[in-house]
Specification:
By secondary structure, the protein is an alpha/beta fold. The chain is 36% helix and 26% strand. Strands 7, 8, 9, 10, 11, 12, 13, 14, 15 and 16 form a 10-stranded mixed β-sheet that branches. It has a 6-stranded parallel β-sheet with strand order 3-2-1-4-5-6, sandwiched between helices.
C-alpha cells in the first residue's frame, strides 16, 4: 500500500519539505514501513520549471476532498488561511504536521481538539526549534518529570544579531541589516526583533508542558530594539553574554510565568555560548535536573527535517499523541503577573549615580553593575526608577 500526502505552501519551508523528501525518499519509506509519495503541492503561484509541476494545485478542495491523501504538511505560515485549511483537513481525518508557530500559538487548542475528535494527529515539532527535537521529548521522553522551568534561545535571527554585536562590536541597526542581507531576517523583521516569534514558541512549550493553552497576549514580551552596544560590552566585562531568553517557570502558588526578555547569561552557563542562528532549550525537572537541546532553529532544510519527521510519525501510527494533554483555557488566571518574575538584575546608571553595587564597571555610557540580591520585576523596576537607570535586565547564572 502506498501512502499519499500533500504539502500546503511551496515557500522556503514547503519547498524544503519537497526537496528533502525526494532526496531521501528511500530511507524515509524504510523508516515509515511503507511506500510514500506527495500527491499535491498547494500554491497559488506557477512553477513551470519544477520537476514536480504535475503535482501543483491552486485549489485546496483537491486535497481536502481526496480520500487518498491521509497526511498533510502545512508550511504556509500565518493564521489564515492556514487555520481554515488545517481544521478542514483534521475534520476529514487527515493528520497534519506544521511548522507554523503563529498558528499553533493562536489556535493550537482548537486544532488539537479537532484532531482528537476525528482520530487523527496534529503535530508541530517544527514550530518551535526548527531541526531541534523538543516537542516530542517534552511530551514523551520527559513525561515522568515534574518540569519546573524551561528556558531557551528560540529565535535564530536575534541570536545572530547579538553575536555580531558581541563579536564584531556592531550596533543593533548594522547587525540587523547584515542579518537581512544574509537572509536570516525578513524585510519586515518585527516578529523577530520585538520578540513575537520567541513569544509564540514559549507559548507552545508552556501549553504542552503545563497543560493549558497559553496565548501570546498573556506573555510579557520585550525584544531587542532598545538594546545598546554599550550594554553588550558592559555585560562581557562583568562576565556575561546578552541573549534573548524565552522562559516559563512554575511559581510558588502553582501558577506559571512565561516571559521573553533580553537577559544577561553567565559565561559559566552553557547557553551563553550558543551563537549565530543556533537555538537552545534548557529543561529543568525533578528527575533530570537539567537537559539542554541544541541545534539549528530555522532554515529551509532543518525545518523541513522536523516537518517530515512528523509526517513519518503520523504515517507509522494511528493513535493521537499531543491532543491528550493540551486543554483550552477560558482565561489566563493561571498565569502569574510579570511583576512576580524574580532574578538578579543588571543596571546601567548615570555616571553621577552614587548607589551602585560592588564590582561595578564604569564607561563613558555610565556605570554598570549587577545587584546580587534577587528582586522581583516590580522591585527591579522601582529600583531602576530610583537610580535613574539607563537600562536594566534580568541575569541568568
Amino acid at each position: 500500500m502506498s501512502v499519499k500526502f500533500a504539502v500546503l505552501g511551496h515557500g522556503v519551508v514547503g519547498s524544503g519539505v519537497v526537496e528533502l523528501f525526494y532526496k531521501n525518499k528511500k530511507s524515509i519509506e524504510r523508516r515509515a514501513g511503507t511506500e510514500i509519495d506527495i500527491k499535491y503541492i498547494l500554491d497559488l503561484r506557477d512553477f513551470p520549471d519544477s520537476p514536480y509541476q504535475d503535482k501543483f494545485t491552486k485549489d485546496f478542495n483537491d486535497i481536502v476532498n481526496d480520500d487518498e491523501v491521509t497526511a498533510v504538511a502545512e508550511c504556509m505560515g500565518g493564521v489564515e488561511p492556514a487555520f481554515t485549511f488545517v481544521k478542514a483537513c483534521l475534520e476529514k481525518g487527515k493528520s497534519v504536521s506544521t511548522s507554523n508557530k503563529e498558528l499553533v500559538a493562536e489556535k493550537g487548542d482548537i486544532l488539537l481538539a479537532a484532531a482528537k475528535a476525528n482520530n487523527c494527529n496534529f503535530f508541530f515539532e517544527a514550530s518551535v526549534g526548527g531541526a531541534i527535537p523538543i516537542i516530542r521529548p517534552l511530551h514523551k521522553c520527559l513525561a515522568a518529570n515534574d518540569i519546573s522551568e524551561v528556558s531557551g534561545i528560540l529565535n535564530g535571527t536575534t541570536n545572530f544579531i547579538l553575536a555580531k554585536m558581541h563579536d564584531d562590536s556592531m550596533d543593533f541597526a548594522d547587525a540587523l541589516k547584515l542579518a537581512q542581507e544574509l537572509g536570516y531576517a525578513e524585510k519586515d523583521p518585527t516578529a523577530d526583533i520585538e520578540g513575537h516569534d520567541a513569544c509564540r514558541k514559549i507559548c507552545i512549550i508552556s501549553s504542552l508542558v503545563f497543560g493549558k493553552h497559553v496565548y501570546p497576549k498573556s506573555v510579557y514580551t520585550k525584544g531587542l530594539t532598545q538594546l545598546e552596544l554599550c550594554d553588550v560590552d558592559s555585560a562581557e566585562v562583568l562576565g556575561y553574554a546578552i541573549k534573548l531568553i524565552a522562559n516559563v517557570r512554575k511559581t510558588a502558588d502553582g501558577k506559571i510565568l512565561p516571559t521573553v526578555m533580553p537577559t544577561l547569561v553567565s559565561f559559566d552557563n552553557i547557553m551563553s555560548g550558543v551563537n549565530d542562528v543556533f537555538n537552545a532549550v534548557m529543561v529543568s525537572g525533578d528527575g533530570i535536573d537539567k537537559v539542554m537541546f541544541y541545534g539549528r532553529g530555522a532554515g529551509k532544510l532543518p525545518t523541513a527535517s522536523a516537518v517530515l519527521g512528523d509526517v513519518i510519525e503520523t504515517i507509522k501510527q494511528t493513535d493521537t499523541e499531543v491532543s491528550q494533554v493540551w486543554e483550552p483555557a477560558s482565561d489566563d488566571s493561571f498565569i502569574a503577573s510579570a511583576d512576580e518574575y524574580t532574578a538578579k538584575w543588571y543596571f546601567r546608571v548615570p555616571l553621577d549615580c552614587k548607589s551602585v553595587g560592588e564590582g561595578a564597571y564604569t564607561s563613558d555610557a555610565g556605570i554598570s553593575f549587577i545587584c546580587d540580591k534577587e528582586l522581583s520585576f516590580k522591585e527591579a523596576s522601582a529600583k531602576a526608577a530610583e537610580l535613574g537607570a539607563l537600562a536594566f535586565m534580568p541575569v541568568m547564572d
